[in-house]
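Appendix B. Chain record.
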Amino acid sequence: MNDVIIATLLVGTIGLLIAILLTIASEKLSISIDEKEIQIREELPGNNCGGCGYPGCDGLAKAIVTGEAKVNQCPVGGKNVADAIAKIMGVESEATIRMRAFVRCGGTCKNATIQYLYYGVKDCNNAAIVPGGGDKQCSHGCMGYGSCVQICEYDAISIIDGVAVVDPDLCQACGKCLKICPNHVISLIPYQKQANVKCNSKEPALRARKNCSVSCIGCGLCARNCPNNAIIIENSLARIDYTKCTNCGICKEKCPRKCIITA
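Structure tokens predicted for this chain:
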């Protein structure tokens, strides 16, 4: 009987010591979290999309508290979330520009030149490693196999006539489609800016014409006629500076290739 009592006391003593040590360790190793960080995290949408440039909403909340990130850095939350975070931080809310994803390609089944028939896995990143990078002759355009569609959490992207098309009203500008596109044909643009160059080709004019009937050839007519100097030509491709663009529509009218749209 004495052996049982001794064993019981020994086990109880060891358990008590372990509990005391764990309590001390938890206090010593605990990481204090700023109350503002918790409040900001509750305001963030919780998508953990990484569109803000930080590892999820927790990372962004911490960065905002330390002053590393702006109060309006969450692309999904928009103005309402930015205003709420600014109130928590005790600062003025910064102007929030709503963004949306835009596919810079007009290479539909009708417009793009097909170099061969592709029967592989319907995924852009898989097709990108095939010689020629998919069935279209233009290696800079949308491949149309839907990697962006699969990764979009908001059902904002569809493949229509061989090209990805973004519904601007559903798009939350999280940026996941930009990261997964092997040809980097998707970019974020201001939601309310309408003039867009629907081409990503960087080929010389002659080759660009051969690859697609609506490719930009870098002729410069749009740039020369823009009253606000909002268009530049780089690598045989027109680019719009949205800080200068006023949506006058002149670039669309002057483009001989009809690759500039206002939608």
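Further analysis of this model is presented in Appendix C.
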